[in-house]
Write a structure and sequence with these properties.
Blueprint (H helix, E strand, L loop, with lengths): L1 E6 L4 E10 L2 E11 L1 H5 L6 H23 L3 H4 L2 E7 L3 H18 L3 E5 H12 L7 E6 L4 E8 L2 E7 L5 H11 L7 H7 L24 H16 L6 H26 L5 E5 L6 H14 L2 E3 L10 H13 L17
Parallel strand pairs: 1-4, 4-5, 6-9, 9-10
Antiparallel strand pairs: 1-2, 2-3, 6-7, 7-8
């Protein structure tokens, strides 16, 4: 079967065609129209501008995805799937309404996809051998959570951040340090040039809870930078980056280790989301998995950020479970199943 998919939950408009046969997902096209240059001048995503940019891009990239895959909707596409939640409501509505229109016009089944399940499903592209149950760390600009995947379409969130998401904290710290949006990748690189000599709060909340917090560590870094500026004192940007990354990542690993202790039946771990591309996080998770003797699955870097291919894979799994949406499908900013 072949699926046409759409992703527009934040600031990337994406359309993909994915073929599923023999338990293997073959990405035939995965077009992503990024809005980074548009939002860079504002230092972050502006929802209204994002929605308008989706409107401008979605038709064009659909033609591109179909042409690259060498297929037509009429003759080759078995179903259409789209991210319906969670995300920026205006951005989501662009994708949902476009997908609904296509499905209705061509008489194709429509499947609604949860964005977070899409991030998890990105791992199935690279690792068709990955099978539930397993634990996933989802880390992105909007979410940071531990999710148990009980089967391909059934997940359980067991912990998360109580305030800022991990990616959000990275970008905000990077912006204050003068790095262009999005600054997470630049901060990740700069951290290798310094040493973790500064003591910032851990992202791990004290106690038995598995939850995390990135607001405190972000504020501590900002206070440090403001103090240095007010006193006109020099400081090492690289050391700040290294210390921040160490505090953020080590706290996540602490809670991830506790989560695995609490679920001894889990023997596989996966990483998902935009921050899954962070080299320090990937290295720390790899070290943890090796120490515990469990299997680790990492998505390819091209599938870490928001993209249509991951939504197609999640959509295929939902389709095979008999899930269908209709013309009354609506978008939701909340994380709905």
């Amino acid at each position: 079967m072949q699926i046409l998919s759409f992703e527009s939950s934040c600031d990337e408009t994406s359309c993909a065609v994915v073929e599923y046969a023999g338990g293997v997902f073959n990405v035939k096209s995965n077009i992503v129209a990024s809005q980074i240059d548009i939002h860079a001048r504002f230092g972050g995503v502006v929802p209204e501008i994002a929605s308008r940019a989706h409107c401008e891009a979605i038709s064009k990239i659909t033609y591109e995805a179909l042409e690259e895959a060498g297929v037509t909707i009429e003759n080759d596409i078995d179903a259409i799937c789209v991210t319906a939640s969670p995300g920026l409501i205006g951005a989501l509505l662009v994708g949902v309404n476009f997908a609904k229109s296509l499905a209705y016009s061509y008489g194709k089944p429509l499947v609604a996809v949860n964005h977070m399940k899409g991030h998890i499903a990105a791992n199935y592209i690279t690792h068709p051998e990955l099978k539930p149950p397993f634990l996933t760390l989802i880390a992105s600009g909007g979410h940071t959570s531990f999710v148990i995947v009980h089967d391909y379409t059934k997940t359980e969130t067991i912990a998360g951040t109580r305030d800022d998401a991990m990616g959000e904290a990275f970008d905000k710290v990077a912006r204050v340090m003068g790095m262009p949006y999005p600054g997470g990748a630049a901060l990740d690189k700069l951290a290798y040039e310094g040493e973790a000599v500064l003591k910032f709060p851990s992202s791990a909340i004290n106690g038995d809870t598995l939850d995390m917090s990135f607001s405190g560590i972000k504020t501590a870094v900002l206070n440090y930078l403001n103090s240095k500026a007010q006193k006109e004192e020099e400081y090492s940007r690289a050391d700040v980056a290294a210390s921040f990354v160490e505090s953020a990542v080590s706290g996540v690993i602490t809670k991830l280790n506790m989560a695995l202790d609490a679920h001894p039946e889990i023997h596989s771990l996966a990483l998902a989301g935009g921050v899954a591309a962070n080299s320090h996080l990937r290295a720390a998770v790899t070290k943890l998995a090796k120490k515990r003797g469990i299997e680790l699955y990492l998505p390819e870097l091209c599938y870490c950020g928001d993209n249509g291919a991951m939504i197609a894979v999640a959509g295929i799994l939902e389709y095979n479970e008999g899930k269908r949406a209709d013309v009354f499908l609506n978008a939701s900013a909340a994380d709905e199943e």
